[in-house]
Amino acid sequence: MALCDILSHGFREWHSSSIIWDALANSYARAQMIDDALYVLSKMSSLNIQISVPTYDSLLYSLRKTDMALEIFEKMESCGVSPSDYSHSILIDGLCKQDKIGEALSFFQDARKEGKFKPLEMTFNVLMSAFCNCGFIQNAKSILCLMLKYGLSPNKYTYSTIIHGLCKLGSICEAFDIFQSVTEEGMELDTVTYNSLIHGFHLHGHTRQIPRMIEIMRNQGFEPDLVTYTILIAGHCEGGDVEEGMKIRKDILDRGLVLNIVTYSILINALFKKGLFYEVENLLREICSIGLDMDVIAYSILIHGYCKLGEIGKALQICNVMCSSQRVMPTSLNHASILLGLCKKGFLDVARLYLENVATKYQPTDVVLYNVVINGYAKVGDIGNAVQLYDQIITAGMCPTIVTCNSLLYCYCKIGDLHAAESYFRAIQISDLQPTTVTYTTLMDALSEAGKVHTMLSVFKEMIGKGIKPNAITYSVVVKGLCKQLMFHDARNVLDDMYVQGFNADPIPYNILIQGFCEARDIKMAFRIYELLVWRGLMPTPVTYNLLINVLCSKGLVIHAEMELESFRKQGAELRKFAYMTLIKALCAKGMPCKAIMWVGKLLDAGFEASIEDFSAAINRLCKRQFTKEALMLLPIMLSVGVYPDIQLYYVLGTAIRKSNEFFYLPILQALATKTGL
Predict the structure, then answer these.
(1) What is the pLDDT of residues 229-265, one digit of tens each?
(2) Global pTM?
(3) Which of 270, 621, 642, 655 is least surrounded, with the fewest CB atoms within 10 Å of its CB?
(4) Does residue 656 form part of some domain?
(5) DSSP assignment, residue 329?
């Protein structure tokens, strides 16, 4: 070190040389030139020059996020230099920033008991911030009380920290009370605090309070910043209102602010969820025009979004741009998204080539990517290629996971090779891999489909015996298998067992049993299982209602079906068009045309779109039973919703008119046909 040599030789005899040495060490420490600072300190020690507290403090501050900080502090004490209050605070801050809150608190308490230092405002604020960031709000409040005992007045940073901690924990009302209290006392909080409250309101569903909060913010002389607007955009996008998010974006740009990549990423993600990829393209052009750099999260959202929409070509383009940027590289998740998209589209050969390319260039030992393609082959029953890729995993020195094996097991089941599936299942059991719920459920489903219900139940008992918990899908498989064999009593017992075991979060097993009773035409038991489902606090699905309405109609109990459907409507049930159309068709078939027309109106009022097929189904049934006049009454309803009769429907109506000798309707029908271009 040239400067050290100059000091050693040129200023050795100068009585103030120690000050120069200390200043040099301090300068290096403050400039983050740690190695140089430590070298100067070592030279000072060899020359018996005392190192000052400010120099130690500068070095402590630069090293506070490393383990060396504690070593410097201990060296300071061993050299007879008494650390200042600021020295102690720096070390506490460093320990907190390293997530060593327990050590920081112990150090704080020990130093306080020994009377080595008097805590500063900074000390308390640092500890409170650390506790709040970890969600320990009560500990933070205890530190605040201790701060007051020391006679220190909390500043705006103190209150901002507590408010942030409360918002993070969900105690938004308490946070707002503190905010109101301190602002009424005249303390001016900063934009960060307002943003914490706005984010808290957004995070915990109090969105109506946000406009009021922004108004208070403006009244205090603070304008919303980009963080504020980003929180608002995120709130609207998460609620599915991406249009409002885009309006806020326009407001931001009109105010002369520039969005950051985080804000753009939130908008792009929401646009993909809505399927508005053309708007995504517009935002990408905007990002390019302002020269904003994309980060790995933005690239990942684009790749995943395009893959979900089936735009694999665009996803590959984004991946290539990402690679050529040389700033960020595609992650395993990005490659997995592309592979999933290719497999979903059925482009398994392309997926295989892409996998081999990735394995060569980027992630040669990422078994997850192999699992994606193996699963793709499994879903189409291509056991040859699936096994071939499995062999490649072994050859490359990778270890197959249970996910790999589950895919192969599924493939054997898919192609109907039950013997191979059972053999492979036993091979998994004696391997180092632990079979999962998916492993057992996959085999059980294949056994159920093959009618081997007793073997399926044996595997189910084995699963329970080994402590592997079944899920709702497992129970559905068991119930389905039992229903196929008309073992309804046993299926009901399985549902009860499922309830006792606490697996009561899914209505699918109940729907399967309801379907079983419906197919057996046991309406009483079907409705009893429906009532059991509701009694156990589960929400029936549209499938549940479809099954019940369908079985009533198929048994000819149309009036009963009408009453039940009306009851479901009044309960606010989530119904599908199928339930309405099933009833409408049954009413037509049973010769109740007026009721059928009324229910067509109810179907349309419920917001469903009726197609030409739906109207044709009703008109055909009415004409067949010689309700020609009522069938013709459906035509104006059709036209009012923009559905026009086709040639086949005109033929059916014309034939019905002739059979019923109601020829005066023919000119009307012909005029309508001419008007609609037929």
Answers:
(1) 888 888 888 888 889 889 988 888 888 888 889 998 9
(2) 0.68
(3) 642
(4) yes
(5) -
